Amino acid sequence: MASVQINLPLPVLPAGWTAEKDFKPIGHLSHATDRNIEPVGPHFLAHARRKRHKRTFSEDDRIQAQANVKKIEDDDEGEISEPEDPLMLQREAKDWKGQDHYAVLGITRYRWRATEDQIKRAHRKKVLKHHPDKKAAKGGTEDDQFFKCIQKATEVLLDPVKRRQFDSVDEAADVEPPSKSETKKGNFYKLWGKVFEAEGRFSNKQPVPKLGNEKSSQEDVENFYNFWYNFDSWRTFEYLDEDVPDDNENRDQKRHVERKNQNARRKKKTEDTARLRKLVDDCLALDERIKIFRQQANAQKNKRRLEKEAEQKRLAEEAAMAKEEEAKLQAEKEAAEKAERAEGKKAKEAAKNAAKKNKRVIRGAAKDANYFHGAGDAPAAQIDSALNDVDAIIAKLDNEEIAAITAKLNGAKGTDAIKQVFQDEVKRLIGAGKLKDGELKSLS
Amino acid sequence: MSAENDPAQRVAIGISFGNSYSSIGFTTGEGKAEVIANEDGDRQIPSILSYIEGEELHGGQAKSQFVRNAKNTVAYFRDFLGKEFKAIDASPCHESAHPIEKDSTIAFKVKDTAEDKVNEVTVSEITTRHLKRLRNSATYYLGKEVNSAVITVPTNFSDVQKEALNKAAKEAGIEVLQFINEPVAAVLAYDARPEAKLADKIIVVADLGGTRSDVAVVASRGGIYTILAALHDYEVTGLKLDQVLIDYFAKEFLKKHKSAGDPREDARGLAKLKLECESVKKALSIGTSANFSVESLVGGIDYTATINRTRYDLLGGKLFSAFSRLVLHAVEKAQLDPLDVTEVILAGGNAHTPKVASTITNAFPETTTVLAPSTTPTAINPSELPVRGAAIQASLIQEFELGDIEQSTHPMVTVTPHLSHAVGVLCISGDESTGVFHAIVDAETPLPVRRTAIIATPREGGDVLIKLAEGARHIKITKPEPKPKKEKAEDDEDDDDSDDDDSEEDEEEIREKTWKINNVLSEAAIRGVKKGGKVEVQINIGADLGVNAIYREVGGKGGVRGIIAGGKAANGSA
Ligand SMILES: Nc1ncnc2c1ncn2[C@@H]1O[C@H](COP(=O)(O)OP(=O)(O)OP(=O)(O)O)[C@@H](O)[C@H]1O
Ligand SMILES: [Mg+2]
What we know:
The complex is a heterodimer of chains A (about 450) and B (about 575).
Chain A: E1 4-6, E2 23-25, E3 33-36, H1 42-52, H2 59-67, H3 86-89, H4 101-105, H5 116-130, H6 132-137, H7 145-158, H8 160-168, H9 180-199, H10 218-229, H11 251-286, H12 288-368, H13 380-396, H14 399-411, H15 415-431
Helix pairs in contact in A: 5-7, 7-8, 12-13, 12-14
Chain B: H1 2-5, E1 12-17, E2 21-27, E3 33-36, E4 45-46, E5 49-52, E6 55-58, H2 59-63, E7 73-74, E8 99-102, E9 105-110, E10 119-122, H3 123-142, E11 148-153, H4 159-171, E12 175-181, H5 182-191, E13 201-208, E14 213-221, E15 224-233, H6 238-256, H7 267-286, E16 289-298, E17 301-308, H8 309-315, H9 317-333, E18 343-347, H10 354-363, E19 369-371, H11 385-397, H12 402-408, H13 411-414, E20 415-418, E21 422-427, E22 436-441, E23 449-456, E24 462-478, H14 498-505, E25 510-529, E26 534-541, E27 547-553, E28 560-564
Parallel strand pairs in B: 1-11, 11-12, 13-18, 18-19
Antiparallel strand pairs in B: 1-2, 2-3, 2-4, 5-6, 5-7, 8-9, 9-10, 13-14, 14-15, 16-17, 21-22, 21-24, 23-26, 24-25, 26-27, 27-28
Helix pairs in contact in B: 3-4, 5-11, 6-7, 9-10
Bound molecules: adenosine-5'-triphosphate (ATP) and magnesium ion.
GO cellular component, one term (chain A): cytosol
GO biological process, one term (chain A): 'de novo' cotranslational protein folding
GO molecular function, one term (chain A): Hsp70 protein binding
């Protein structure tokens, strides 16, 4: 064999791929199928040489070899054949419309399920058995009536259109719906399943959804009923037509029969549609799953409602609580503010009082320092300017500075020391640009 | 008898023995198969014997006796060999000697001697006489006493039937070297042509013969053939096609000669119709019209008419499509899809009919080659396929001792495990969902097997991953996008071809063959592949399902070798 040429590139080795000696076994090949190869052609000869080379096969091997080989031929004999009803064997070919074609071919266990292949093989088996030449050869009569029935059955069943016409009216393939009491015994799925399997043969759409069982999902069950309520059927009733007269003479009669047939077909079709609808209704009414689904749906709905209510309640409670909380916070805040305000007023008052007191001390200190006049009584002018200066200083000071200077003055003994405190203060104020040099008269 | 023991003394031919026709062939010194014409110049020799006043007529001469001497003419008997009376289908013999039951076998009542006495001649004896005549024709042609043959049989010919045929052949002085299956002989006939290339294929051999049609699906792997499925049908036949023409001409005749009576109801008239209709059918394989001409068809009236091919195509339409359905069923039975089929070999005489070939061509995708005279100019004559295959096989094995042949064709040798899935590599990506699987060994390849593949690498070369996996063939079906409806009002011109719209509506879905990764077997790396380099992968799979893989860069040094253990061993290889 020439080597296989593959033009698509191999994948790039993934980063970090490693394996011992660059090879990594992962899986195993699936099972092989034993088959007979054909002992034909030059390549087989080479195969045989290889296989037989220096080998002797034991008897056991030989018997074993064929045992598991996959079969390629169907054995016609293998299939069970159905017993032939003696009455059926006496049928006349001209009454072919009334014959059960599946029974004639011995395939009643398949009916509409029979494949083309099965029909052909059944036909062949019947031909082998009933061929008139064979009967003649056996000294029988040349009666070929049943043989003709066989040919007719095959003709009908191998023609897709004719087969559908026959299958449409093949009552033997119908499965009667079970009675209510039968279904009650817990056979609902088995019994009704068969009914729908049989009805499904008329469906244009294939595959037909199955009835399923108690474990089927709601979706499947819904699909099932939707399918059957919208059933698209190929069932036709022309097989039951009255024979149309063949002669050309009686055209009116012919047309009359044709019209009658058309009407009959339409009527039967309508009846069939109604029948099926009722069938589906009946099944649906008995279907426990529907009840269960409804209960589940109700339960679900209730659950949802309860949940919703609970949620609303919870939300309301939460809201109430939040409101309460807020109110509480507000109240606290107000109280705090009030307290603070009260506190502030007191402090201010106190500060004011203190400042008043301090100012008194400061002014007193100026008096103690003899209004900065040195020894002897200070003249009124001196007193005035000294008191003015002190007031000017006080005016420039805030409460804390007043307190500070008060403290210094309390510690200062003697006029000089007091004067010094004042002078220092003036200096500080000038330094801070709050006083101008020479603005004060007595303390410069 | 001496020849049986001495292969050196053998003169072997190939014989195809059908219910309707037989052929003889041999292989020339250059290894070319040739079909031998008998004394009448026929290469398709009717499998018919007829007795008249103690004289035995054979082939075409016997066939013409259908008209005057039907009772003493034996035809369509091959399938009766080795069968019980209750298991045979006697219908093709309706207009000639009828089969009867005789001592748990089948016989024909014929006056086969000069005496006026009816003898019961068994099917075995008839076969012997027929094979003798074939052997004589071959001997006469080759100038050497023919003493052995490879004979083709249908795939459902039972061991009992083969034994019966073997015995009848022996009586005729023919040592059967081997029975080979007709469809496989057809495949071999094609593969033995010098221009044939060895390739893995799925081949469908569809044989539309005279009394039956047979379909076989064959896997051809490295020149080894395995039948995957076979189907047979006894309703879709050449005789039925003849019948279609018989009915047509009978009706035409009746239109003209109302009072003459139906030629089908007259034994001779019917026999004449049959013979002429088969000729007309054959003529329509080459010409587009054919003449029908019978002297004294019924009531002394000569009747001539013509028919064109189209008419025949229509008349046979049901049978042609039934045949095509049969072929598709066989593919299905083999659990394959028409897309898996590489070629269809049309065999059997009716494969000459162009409509048969075109019907089959339409049933398969474009990727399938249909080998028939009307579709492929180089096709082998479909009537000669089995005999050519038999002649080639005869030349291949005539030097072997019979015991040797028996040993080699024993199930011990022929039963072989076959791969259930294709084995191949992932391309483009090592990821199973995005990588593209490419098969190296196909499914249904018999084990052991060795296959080599040469695989491209990424544009820049470098380190590559070789991921070996099992691939399951998958048919991807794409529904065509519904086309936006044409706006009629604006597009008046389109209105008149409204049937054009119809064809658009049921536009066919697109079916493609793709792969699904079934099972990853191993990973390997080849490092530093040079730019534009290729990697060679050799896979050896043993009968125990063990895999031995060798990877190397083409032209590079070294390589990687890996072994995958056989898992569970295949059956029967103790
Ligand atoms: N050129 C042709 N064109 C059309 N049909 C042909 C041609 N040649 C032969 N046939 C038909 O092919 C059929 C015979 O096919 P074939 O030679 O394969 O027969 P066979 O294998 O002996 O048949 P079987 O065993 O099925 O009876 C006949 O129906 C014959 O009319
Ligand atoms: Mg054949």
